[in-house]
Amino acid sequence: MTRSLLLASLLAGSALTMGTAHAAGDKEHGRILVYTCAGCHGVTGYKNAYPSYHVPRIAGQNEDYLVNALKEYRSGNRAHPTMRAQGESLSDQDIADIAAYLSSLAKQ
């Protein structure tokens, strides 16, 4: 009986985390995909077309943060026209790959 309860609780716990986890990212594919990111996010002192919007440095950023941010831009829950357009062109796997690569870089 105890073994059955333990197994049931383990299965229930894994089912809960499956909805929040994201696919493992491929850093090498992410490295290829970020070529469009560097134009804004890789230039020191860069001011984009929306001067009231700070362009954050994304190298070394937390992987989960990057995944969530890109998905929110893609869905329109975060408002920025350029990032929305970028996000709309990305699949979930692309986002995971980009996040895996960027999070592996040293913070600058």
Automatic annotation (TrEMBL):
UniProt-recorded Gene Ontology molecular function terms: electron transfer activity; heme binding; metal ion binding
Ranges for domain Cytochrome c: 25-106
Keywords assigned: Electron transport, Heme, Iron, Metal-binding, Signal, Transport
Keyword NAD: no
Signal peptide: 1-23
InterPro entries in the cross-refs: Cyt_c-like_dom, Cyt_c-like_dom_sf, Cytochrome_c_Oxidase_Subunit
Pfam family, one: Cytochrom_C
Protein name: Cytochrome C
Taxonomic source organism: Mizugakiibacter sediminis
